[in-house]
Specification:
Layout lengths: L4 E5 L6 H9 L17 E7 L2 E7 L12 H14 L2 E7 L6 H11 L5 E6 L22 E2 L8 H12 L12 E6 L6 H9 L17 E7 L2 E7 L12 H16 L2 E7 L6 H12 L4 E6 L10 H11 L8 E3 L8 H15 L5 H14 L14 E8 L4 E6 L7 H14 L8 E6 L8
Parallel strand pairs: 1-3, 1-4, 4-5, 5-6, 7-9, 7-10, 10-11, 11-12, 14-15
Antiparallel strand pairs: 2-3, 8-9, 13-14
Helix pairs in contact: 10-11
Length: 444
């Protein structure tokens, strides 16, 4: 079922992204005083009084982008308007009516859609008298709102529901899985996302740092709904040149944390960098299932075989020994669907729960191969009694031992690696928890 779309449009710096975040009740779009921060269409599903719609933030109309992406931003605005059931036209009460507002109004008069005129930055009642100037734009009564303080936003939601009429009454199903597509700059993340969405959903450019926000893009595969999260290309933290890049970095790392599976994209034509290594470590530290997406393989396959590249990654990214590889050419759509299939398989593994009997049989086999050993500490040798699975996503295995301090990090890695191979989650991270037997005894 398609969800009705409500698009937010307006000239730069009228507070579109702030209003988007206010209506979404969380920080999604980057908000900055610099004009032109938003480039792509940023979306989220809104649930309000048993009504549902997809709210879309767009770039500033008429912005002269410093990276020559003006036409691409304008195209994304046109895409957003073409799909919208309702349009929120945002103007700025404090700066007043501008010629660009009139240009936006002329454009919207050509759209056969309801338009709600939101006079933003009406932070108190003293600004209400200035709302009248926007009647000139030729739409229904302007609504005084303040994205900063929430003033008028309840009335705005009610107006949206009114204009949607019978649309948006059916509940939106949660996606089967959220995929975060991450990597350093210019590895092809947005091209990959567009291929999944089967439309020009993200701006694709050779300009480094084109994507700034983390953008949720819904797509369908085999009758199921998924969300792919496009993220800003990462680079060394020391090289982040402004607040926008810092916010982009923060949202990219947050996207990893909220994803079910991470698609870590690597450029096959470039050597693995320190940024790649730090990103790998962040994914592992957050215990996220990960598919290594080797993009631009068409440009590299004559120079190295898949087997050679696999060996290369094992040397330079030793932190990710269990992550499967998928060689793709996103520009031509090659193998993109296979990457999603791999992610689905990893999600199944991470969601698997095994019986206590199955787990302990595997544990005994691993212990028989190599016991904990080690020297005495305080007169004690390390002992592992039994194990149980406490959770999934990631699989959490609890080992009951005589003293957790006696099992070193190296032996814990051995346990995780070998238990993973023996159990049905061999390609996903495992969380190992050690508990003292005398403190955490199972009921008989």
């Amino acid at each position: 079922m398609s969800v009705p779309i409500v698009a937010i449009v307006g000239r730069p710096n009228v507070g579109k992204s702030s209003l988007f975040n206010r209506l979404a009740r969380r920080r999604i779009s980057i908000v900055e005083a610099t004009p032109g921060v938003t480039r792509d269409r940023v979306c989220t599903i809104i649930r309000h009084e048993r009504r549902f719609w997809e709210l879309v933030d767009t770039g500033g109309y008429g912005i002269e982008d410093t990276a020559d992406l003006t036409e691409s931003i304008a195209e994304q605005i046109r895409f957003g308007l073409a799909e919208a059931a309702v349009i929120i036209f945002v103007v700025d009460v404090q700066s007043g009516l501008a010629s660009l507002d009139e240009e936006v109004a002329r454009m919207l008069r050509g759209c056969d859609r309801p338009v709600i005129l939101a006079a933003n930055k009406a932070d108190s009642s003293k600004f209400d008298s200035q709302v009248g100037q926007f009647y000139k734009l030729g739409f229904a009564e302007p609504l005084a709102v303040s994205a900063l303080h929430g003033r008028g936003c309840k009335q705005l939601r009610e107006r949206i529901i009114e204009e949607l009429a019978e649309e948006g009454t059916e509940e939106v199903a949660e996606p089967v899985m959220k995929l975060a597509v991450v990597g350093k700059r210019n590895v092809g993340k947005s091209t990959f996302i567009n291929c999944l969405a089967r439309e020009q959903r993200m701006i694709v450019s050779e300009v480094p740092g084109t994507t700034r926000d983390s953008v949720d893009v819904r797509f369908e595969k085999d009758g199921q709904s998924f969300v792919a999260i496009d993220t800003a290309g990462l680079r060394k933290k020391s090289k982040l040149s402004n607040d926008i890049e810092f916010y982009s970095y923060s949202r990219a790392t947050r996207s990893i944390r909220r994803a079910d599976v991470v698609l870590f994209m690597i450029d096959a034509t470039e050597p693995i960098s320190s940024v790649d290594k730090k990103l790998a470590r962040y994914i592992i530290d957050n215990l996220k299932p990960c598919v290594l997406i080797i993009n631009k393989w068409d440009l590299a396959k004559g120079k190295m075989s898949m087997e050679d590249y696999h060996e290369y990654l094992e040397k330079v990214l030793p932190a990710m020994p269990v992550a499967p590889l998928c060689f793709v050419t996103a520009k031509q759509g090659r193998n993109v669907a296979s990457a999603v299939d791999l992610a689905i398989e990893l999600f199944k593994q991470a969601s698997t729960r095994v019986s206590t009997a199955q787990l302990n049989k595997a544990l005994q086999a691993v212990l028989a191969q190599r016991g904990p050993g080690g020297g005495k500490r305080g007169g004690k040798l390390p002992k592992i009694y039994y194990a149980t699975q406490a959770g999934v996503n990631p699989p959490q295995l609890v080992l009951f031992v005589n003293d957790p301090k006696l099992l070193g990090a190296s032996y814990q890695r051995y346990l995780v690696n070998n238990l993973g191979r023996a159990l049905p989650f061999s390609e996903v991270p495992i969380e190992l928890v050690l508990r003292s037997h005398h403190k955490s005894r199972l009921e008989a």
